[in-house]
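Handout, page 2. Input:
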Amino acid sequence: MGQTEKVGVYVDAANVSQSGGFGLRYEILRKFATRGGEYPARLNVYQIYDAKRAENDRSYREKATRFAEVLRDYEYKVIEKPLTRKDSYSEGDNTINTAVDVDMTVDILEQADELDKIVLLTNKSSFTRLVQAVQQRGCRVEVIGFDSIAGDLKREADMYFSGYLIPGLLPIESPYEWGRVGSRVRGLCYDFSHNDGYGFMRYLTNFNEQLWITDSRFEGSPFKTVFAHVSQFEDNFDTSYLPSRDLIFEFDLAESDKGLVAENVILVSAP
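Output:
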């Protein structure tokens, strides 16, 4: 029996939260990262911490503490990085300056030789050269992102996967489990006929090592296909953009005499 491969997960928490990944479930992320049976050798989450605010804001201080404690339950290491302010600083402003990028880069470079795969959560193009460097060391790199993902980062990764498409990774309002009839899921429209006014959506049902089998007709594919009529898309959506692998939709799964169909289709993410 071969040696179990080792994976490292590195999350820029503030960047992910601000670019569509707010509410990310880290236990699901761990399962996705180790879907091929890999051992989670490193699980690092880099979190901005405002020490000055914490002195006077009890709620902020308690939330930061609780965040770290919950992640420790899933064996993540939370690395708090202090922020510095400019005179024009305001909550959520891009004048925040931290050493998160530098620390993530250094840690990944130092640890890459002991890893077989790296899963990186960020949308910044500044990590593109890092991806190339660790690939040269023989390490596979997967990038997970949500909104505004840098195109060069997506292209350089061995695999890019939208976090919106991973079942359970983000909260979703639905009375049923993802994938069941009546549930609400997220997927993309990979085929659309403008003449006929309908197309097909693809969504992930589970995650395993065969994510590359995107055609649901093939055995082992973790994806399913569902019929989507133009009348089910939200009123203000321009279907001329379809088909597209960049647009992420959320929709209800319903049954009809044609099989599964998508209803109440809304756009949740676009480049």
